[in-house]
Amino acid sequence: MSDFNRRKFLEGSAGVAAAATIGTGSAVFAPFAQAQAQIMSFKPEKDAKLRVLRWSRFVQGDIDAYMINVKKFTEKTGVEVRVDNEGWEDVRPKAAVAANTGAGPDIILSTNDDANLYPDKLLDVTDLAEYLGKKYGGWYPAVQQYLRPDGKKWLGLGLGAAGSNIVYRDSMVKAAGFSTFPKDTAGFLALHKALAAKGTPGGYALGNATGDSLWTNWLMWSHGGMLVDKNNKVVIDSPETVKALEYGKELYATFIPGTLSWLDPNNNKAFLDGQISVTNNGISIYYAAKNSTDPKVKEIAADIQHASFPVGPAGVPTESHLFFNQMIFKYTKYPQAAKEFLRFMMEREQFDNWLIGAGGYIAQPLAAYESCPIWTSDPKHTAYRDSVKNMRPSGHAGRLGYASAGAGADFIVANMVAEAISGAKTPREAVERAQKRAERYYKV
């Protein structure tokens, strides 16, 4: 098992096949044997059919493992399930249309706090969420902030997160004079200056990238800035945010040209093409390199390392990751079938296999899955294990709801950072504009 996991599970769908062989009798499941004895279930409606809309895979093993679990569900329940895949940027507007028209997919797998855009349109899944939380070690705090903003009703279930960590070429970092990846923002900037001087620059997305623009939250938070305070008062126009943007200007000067237009796929391509030596991403770059048929690209895999974003003047980790949720719309004709589908997919027999198939691209939302073998089968996976556990919600430090969801969907922080660090606006102008944009959502 361990030898297989180290070398084989990421190769095509082989990891999915291996995952499918893991049974409840294995050592992985032993700590949860007693919990497995009591299973909540929902009886699907007669002749139920479900349609699921989810984001497209960045890792082939993700969708392969997911569809294996879908097939198992259909075989067990007789419920036919259609799964449609769309890009992150397309799922959000389609979910909004479904909410407004009362027609469309029964279940949508979306991002961040989209559930807070239309809470009254979503099926209450509190009973299911509490069952899963009790059985699997509890939901991490950020999951509850995203999907139970009132502390009572669950708007959906957490699915996990794609970790937005540092991906770097170890040989290039060492050639720039750094034996280890910096753990503070001063060292982070010094490294990027050294890499640029060596002709091996870094690059980070500054376009409206759903996942890869999240590093801009880290930039602001690491210096003590934030969009709103605990009372949901907009405070992005602050000395701390300005300092973050001034730091960002120095960092941007080291970037490869073109990052202002980068969306989620662009930094993957630039990294694998050898154009950049460091960026932020999920584990998909490593996955693509390991499984490439191009020998030159495949060689890069051995040189890839991962690290958390460094700690800044704020003095604490300020991680921002792409959160995934699972929502059931009230208009569904088959609410029982929809809840049973989500329950089935989140039970350990299915969920561990999906995590393994996805190769570490998704970090778990429930504490019990920290023991999934994916996180130790390859040391390069481990950096992503605690992404959901450690992340701050995108609406930090306020209460999540319509305002936070709208501000996030409008890329207010990402746009502010792009404008200021590229020189399109001064830091002062950029924060003033961001303040006004955010206040339209956070109305007093």
What is the typical, i.e. mean, pLDDT? 91
Q: What series of H and E elements makes up the topology?
A: HHHEHEHEHHEEHHHHHEHHEEHHHHHH
Number of strand elements: 8
Distance between the termini: 56 Å
Q: Name the CATH superfamily assignment of the largest domain.
A: Periplasmic binding protein-like II
Q: What's the helical proportion of residues? A: 40-55%
Number of continuous helical runs: 20
**What is the SS-derived class?**
alpha/beta
- What is the fold named in CATH at topology level of the largest domain? D-Maltodextrin-Binding Protein, domain 2
The CATH class of the largest domain turns out to be Alpha Beta
- What radius of gyration results from the CA coordinates? 21 Å
Write out the strand line-up for the largest beta sheet, numbering strands in chain order.
Answer: 2-1-3-8-4
Major sheet size, sense and barrel closure: 5 strands, mixed
State which percent range the strand residues make up. 5-15%
Low-pLDDT regions: 1-37
Which geometry do the CA atoms define? globular
What is the level-2 CATH architecture name of the largest domain? 3-Layer(aba) Sandwich
Summed up, the domain count is 2
Can you walk through the features of this model?
This protein has 444 residues and is an alpha/beta fold. It has 20 helices and eight strands. A five-stranded mixed β-sheet has the order 2-1-3-8-4, with helices on both faces. Helix 4 (60-77) links the parallel strand 1 and strand 2 (80-86). The termini are far apart.
